[in-house]
Amino acid sequence: MIMENKDELAAFCSCGCGDGVHLKVTKDNDGKTVYLSFVTDRFYSEQGNAFSRFKEKLKRIWCIIRNKEYSYFEIIMNESDIQNFKEFVEKI
């Protein structure tokens, strides 16, 4: 699902999990600045107990120590969402 207005675009996963990307374009003195935020629905991220959340954070820390990449989540978009996303990024 894509939500867009003049200077902002929010793209969320089509499966309904609440994960997404938020792009905001802010014009300043030297041109344009783009802010990119990754958002997630806290309902799903807080479902585990304290030990499982701690274990997940240790996995992230271990990846950082080993200089490896860690994938927080993936976003599934349909064709129309991809087209809207591409058009917004081209306007930047």
Descriptors:
alpha+beta; 28% strand; single chain; 4 strands; 92 residues; globular
Describe the structure.
With 92 residues, this protein is an alpha+beta fold. The chain has helices spanning 42-45, 50-65, 79-91; strands at residues 2-4, 8-12, 20-28, 31-39. A four-stranded antiparallel sheet has the order 1-2-3-4, with helices on one face. The relative contact order is 0.22.
Secondary-structure element string: EEEEHHH
What is the percent of helical residues?
25-40%
Low-confidence stretches: none
- What general form does the structure show? globular
Structural class given helices, strands, pairing?
alpha+beta
The termini sit apart by 20 Å
Query: Main β-sheet, in a few words?
Result: 4 strands, antiparallel
Strand-residue proportion: 25-35%
Overall residue-averaged pLDDT value: 78
Work out the number of β strands.
Answer: 4
Across the major sheet, the strand order is 1-2-3-4
- CA radius of gyration is 16 Å
Oligomer: single chain
What is the number of helices? 3
